[in-house]
Amino acid sequence: MSPLAQIVALPVRAYRLFFSPWVGHGCRYQPTCSAYALEALERHGALKGAYLAAKRVLSCHPWGGHGYDPVPGADPEFDAQRRCKDHDHA
C-alpha cells in the first residue's frame, strides 16, 4: 500500500478498532464496507481507492444495494458478469 493510501486507511482502521465492535454485524454488503475500503486502497491506491470506498459507504442505506460486491479487480469472474449486465442495459 502506498504511503498516501496508508494515511487514508487510518480512519478506516480506527473505525474497525474502536467503533465496529459497538455497531454490530448488520452489514448489507459482503465484504463489509471497512474491508472493502482497505482492499480498494491496497489495489487502487489512495485516490481511486478512497473514491471507491466513499461510493460504497454512500450506497449503504435502506434503499441502497446489498449482497456480494467485491472491489473491482478482486473477482475477475464477477467483474465480467457485471460488465455483461451493464452492457445489456445500455
Automatic annotation (TrEMBL):
GO terms for cellular component: plasma membrane. Keywords: Cell membrane, Membrane. It is a peripheral membrane protein. It is found in: Cell membrane. The keyword RNA-binding does not apply. InterPro entries: Membr_insert_effic_factor_YidD. It comes from the Bacteria. PANTHER family: MEMBRANE PROTEIN INSERTION EFFICIENCY FACTOR-RELATED. Could be involved in insertion of integral membrane proteins into the membrane. Belongs to the UPF0161 family. This is Putative membrane protein insertion efficiency factor. It comes from Paenirhodobacter ferrireducens. The gene is yidD.
